[in-house]
Each structure stands twice: as structure tokens, then as C-alpha cells.
Amino acid sequence: MTDTTVLELVSPSALLKSEPVEMVVVPGTDGNFGVLPKHSPMISTIRPGVIDIYAGGKVSERIFVAGGVAEVNPERCTILAEEAVPVADLKADEAQARLEAAQADLKAASTAHDKANAERSLDIARAQIAALTN
Amino acid sequence: MASLKDLRSRIASVKSTKKITSAMKMVAASKLRRAQDAAEAARPYAERMGTMLGRLASAVGSNEGAPKLLAGTGQDDVHLLVVFTADRGLCGGFNASIVKATRLKAKALRAEGKTVKLVCVGRKGADALKREFGDSIVARYTGVEGKKGINFSSATEVADKVLALYDEGEFDVCTVFYNKFVSAISQVPTGQQLIPFVGEEVDVQEEAAGSSAVYDYEPSEEAILADLLPRNVGVQIFGAMLESSASEHGARMSAMDNATRNAGDMIDRLSIQYNRSRQAQITNELIEIISGAEAL
């Protein structure tokens, strides 16, 4: 049997995934990183992007996450995501609508807090569109 | 003494009340099951968030550069209480007990000379606290529980408000008050400090056994902490909302169960009274007829 590490994908409302995988590529804030079994322990924040799960040397599943944190240790990789959708379930027009809404929010934002929120959803929408195009 | 007709209509009215309460009980039971599932599903996220934060917080410690959400403002003057109640009544002591706990806390704080501000989630709490603390209520939310249960986005909305207030320096300490769900018949009003963050005790032994290795942080401890702490506020508020909703349905279920039982008892009592007075009337009439016949 090949070595596996346990991937746990958790969103605020449910434990979405808890299963052994061969490798998973996580979009960290400072760049993507791959997690193989016996990875050294680390904690990293995640930018909006796609998690690639590998099986048998190729991508078996792609899941979009809208940011969060990942905790990696030799046995497991825990990802806390605020929003997680399989890429196959993303809709181009919805992502586009979200992008436009975020742009409008950004224009209308008056306080620094609102502005930061709008920028975040803008990033998410852009990442969704990027995930769909490749 | 009530006439037969009065008794009959009384029985009919109690019967229809009983139908309503038993239907409400059924609805509450099914909502309770859903709310309980939702609360259970949310637990893993909150737990992992808690351990991760605990580890980070102990790593960063009380450095100079520690985020305000962890270290606090250094003052203890203004307290913000976030109160979670239901939008509706008819759920026994559910709303009253949480309001009472809040009131006690608020009074104690005022007695110490501190300022109290309130955020009310749920209509009943806002209504009950309005009279005494009307000026202190800074925000109120209703209808957090939609048709499909509680949405994370409604928790984010409340969390954003709390964080915005904190950024503006409107308060120093934030505590949430909600009913913790123990079982369908037992809910415990709980107060929990949200800001500044209080870490759970990380189990040192487990820690040493599990991974004595030091974690790498990317980008840095401080950056991760600054990102995680606001998120944690949202998660905690979401958790409190879920607990509160499960408690509400549990409380309503047992309250309606009691009401149904009481209505049943009352119907029994009224029926006996009705039968007796009907019998008495018949006997009376017979006596009249017989004595009338004898007089002839």
C-alpha cells in the first residue's frame, strides 16, 4: 500500500472530508504547497484558490476554497475553510455576478472595514473565475 | 354554577388549544433534530480552530506585537454583552432565563462602575431588555434563523459588527450569553468571554506525545494569528447561535409537551363536571315529574 496522509476539510457547518490521500496541493498565502505523508508540521493561511487532491499520480478531485487555514503534521492535513465547493459545481455566471457585486461594494465602501470586506470578496470571485478557466 | 352550554364550549376550546400545542410540539421536535445535527456538524471546525489558536497563542505569548484581539485593550471599563434569545415565545423559561442571567451580569458590572453595552440577537431578548437597558443596546438582530436553519453568513454579520465596534474602541471586553444545549429538557444559560481571546488549556502531555516538533508558520505567527482571531469570533458566534437554536427548540418541545398534558387533564376534569351536572339536571327533572304525579 502506498503511503497516505489524512486530509480533513472542515467548514463551519460541516466536516466535509476526512479521508486518506496520497498528496494534496494547497493554495497557501505565500504560494502553493504540496503535502505528502510525513510532512513537517506547519500552519499556513490559505488564499482563495483550488485544492488539488492527487490519487495515482494525477489529480482526482479539485475543490475550491475561499480562504482559511491549513494545519499540517506528519499524519494529517487539516484545512479549515470558510467556504468550500467542488470546482465542478462552480458556475461561471454566478462567479461573474459575485465579481460585479464585489466591485460595486468596493466603490460604495466608505469605511476601511467595508473596504477590506469588499476586497476580500473581490479576491474570492477572481479566484473562482481563474479556477474555472483552467 | 356554569351551565351545561358553558361547559360544552369550554371543553371545545380546551380541545382546540390541545391540538395546537401538540402540533407545536411535533414541529419543535423535528426542528430540534435538525438543529442538533447542525450543532454537531459545526463542532469539528470550532474544536480544531480552538486547538490551533491555543497553540498559536502560547507560541506568540504576550509579546508587544500581539494582536489586540488576543491581548485586549489593556482596559476593563466597557463591557459588551451579546445576548442570544429566540424570536418567538411559547418556549417555557428559555428567553426568561437568558435575560435574567444577562440582567444579573449587567447589574453587577454597573455596580462596579463599568459601562455596559448590549447586542441583542433575537427579538424576545431585545424586547425584554429594552425597558431597563434601552440606551445601552447598540445593535439588534432578528430573524437569524431562516427556513433552512442558521446560516453562517448571519453569524458573520453579527461578528463583523462586533469587530467593527472593537476596532473603533467602543468596548474592552466582550461576553456572549446563550443557552447551552444539554438535552431536550435541560438548557443552561452560559456566559463566555469572546474578546480578548481566552485559550483553552492545551493538553501538555498530549502535545508532547503527539508532535514535539515545532510548527513552521507561514507567513508568520503574528500574521496567522491576526487572520485567525477575527475568524474565531465568527465561529464562536455561529456556535452560540446553533446552541441557542437547539436549546430553543428543546425548550419549546418540553413546554408544549407539558401544555398538551395539562390540556388533557383539564378536559378530563371538565368532562367529569359536565357529566355530573347533566346527571343532576336529569335527576332534578325526574323528581319534579314524580312529585307532580304524586300530588294528583
CATH fold group of chain B: Pyruvate Kinase, Chain: A, domain 1
Order of helices and strands of chain A: EEEEEEEEEEHH
Protein chain pair with the most extensive contact, residues per chain: A-B, 28 and 34 residues
The low-pLDDT segments of chain B are 204-212
Q: Estimate the strand proportion of chain B.
A: 15-25%
Second-tier CATH architecture of the largest domain in chain A? Sandwich
Indicate the CATH class of the largest domain in chain A: Mainly Beta
Instruction: List low-pLDDT spans of chain A.
Output: none
Structure report:
The complex is a heterodimer of chains A (134) and B (296). With 134 residues, chain A is α+β, with helices and mostly antiparallel strands. Chain A has a five-stranded mixed beta sheet, with no helix packed on it. Chain A is elongated, with a radius of gyration of 16 Å. Chain B has seven helices and eight strands. In chain B, helix 4 links the parallel strand 2 and strand 3. In chain B, helix 1 runs antiparallel to helix 7, helix 3 runs parallel beside helix 4 and helix 5 crosses helix 7. Chain B is elongated and about 110 Å long. About 3% of the residues of chain B have low confidence. The interface between A and B is medium-sized, with 28 and 34 residues.
How would the blueprint of this fold be written?
The complex is a heterodimer of chains A (134) and B (296).
Chain A lengths: L4 E7 L2 E8 L1 E6 L2 E5 L6 E5 L2 E7 L2 E8 L2 E5 L3 E6 L2 E3 L5 H17 L3 H22 L1
Parallel strand pairs in A: 1-9
Antiparallel strand pairs in A: 1-2, 3-4, 3-6, 5-8, 6-7, 7-10, 8-9
Chain B lengths: L3 H57 L7 H4 L6 E7 L9 H18 L3 E7 L1 H11 L3 E5 L3 E2 L2 E2 L1 H16 L5 E11 L2 E10 L8 H7 L5 E3 L2 H75 L1
Parallel strand pairs in B: 1-2, 1-6, 2-3
Antiparallel strand pairs in B: 4-5, 6-7
